[in-house]
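User: Can you help me understand a structure? I only have the sequence.
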Amino acid sequence: MSNIRLAGAQIPCTLSISENVTHLKCAIDWAAKNSVDYLLTPEGSLSGYHPGYDNDIDALVAAEKKIVSYAVKNKVGLCLGTMWCEKDSRFHEGYRRENQIRFYTSLGAFLGSTNKTYTIPEYDQTVVSESINIIDMPAGLRASGLVCNDFWGGSIEGGSLPVHVKEKLGANLIFHATNGFKGELPVYDEITEIWHEGNLRMASFITGIPIVTVDNCYKMNGEVFEGKTSSQSGILLNGQWKIKAPRVGTHYFYYDFDLISLSTLRLYKHPDQDIINNNPNIKGASV
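Assistant: Let's start by predicting it. Here is the structure, written out as tokens:
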């Protein structure tokens, strides 16, 4: 395999697990038809994004098994955004609440999960993770899964998490699953839209590694929404969009990367390198 096809699914995240399963299956169908290697879904795309997601743990676990089996049947690797309940005897319920991206190969092997650190108490009500995992994927890929605010404002050792996972943990790829507030406060929506895209592009420029990002196209509380997503879904490299999804409704997208260049961190190129080459006295931003 000389190229790897990375994809995202901007899909509705509702409060109904069964509805979410339907949306996820449609995304997997598309991924299979388009020979996608790994498909990223939004934050809470299986469970919904709400504090009562663990009211029926059995239903959530059964839905996860159903979706993973469906992805295996269709030979699609999965980066699944969902709230989750990890077994943990330290908690009186017998589990700890997490907001995760769960990684699976196309054969269904569970590669691990990355957990949200910058949680929102009224929505997440999950454990605040103290570290960020790197997922060792096949073919030399070291992926970081950042959940929503972890990308926008999460910090470990005082620095931004996108930079931290690349510089300190050796990630060569970032998957970002988000579920942004939208549709209630138009001025706030405009401000966060600009902030989100600027943040994504600058982190992409600084790190020089691909970023795959997807947002929920419904409201954060699961209600139907016909407006723009809170943040742009798509795939970035070196501060520029390789693929941008339309901002309204369900959309799927993919981009092919050279696998060797990706795994060996050889995709970085300053977007203005030609200008810099012709005028080395320019003292602008550099990496």
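Now, to help you interpret it: The helical segments are 17-33, 57-73, 149-152, 161-167, 186-207, 259-263, 273-278. The chain has seven helices and 14 strands. Let me know which part you'd like to focus on.
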